Amino acid sequence: xxxxxxxxxxxxxxxxxxxxxxxxxxxxELRASPASPGRGAYTCRRLSCFERALSLRAFNRTLRTQxxxxxALRDLYTDADG
Length: 82
Ligand SMILES: [Zn+2]
Hints:
Largest sheet: 3 strands, antiparallel
Number of domains: 1
Structural class: alpha+beta
Number of strands: 5
Number of helices: 2
CATH topology: Hypothetical Cytosolic Protein, Chain: A
Distance between the termini: 32 Å
CATH class: Alpha Beta
CATH superfamily: YlxR-like
Radius of gyration: 12 Å
Strand content: 15-25%
Bound molecules: zinc ion
Helix content: 10-25%
Mean pLDDT: 93
Order of helices and strands: EEEEEHH
């Protein structure tokens, strides 16, 4: 069975789904969501990709809706070299 490949909303890198963080929109708010139904947006596990996705408004574009992004989501990224 093929491994699902997704693109990072920040840098555009394609990677196996399991390597990426998944987000989805709930009532207009972006939340980390490993397995909710429907449309998801992905980033690498690097804070720089999250920041880049934010500045590109890539979450809105990928999810096809306007989402508010809580900056506490940055805490999901634990890398030091971002
Ligand atoms: Zn990335």
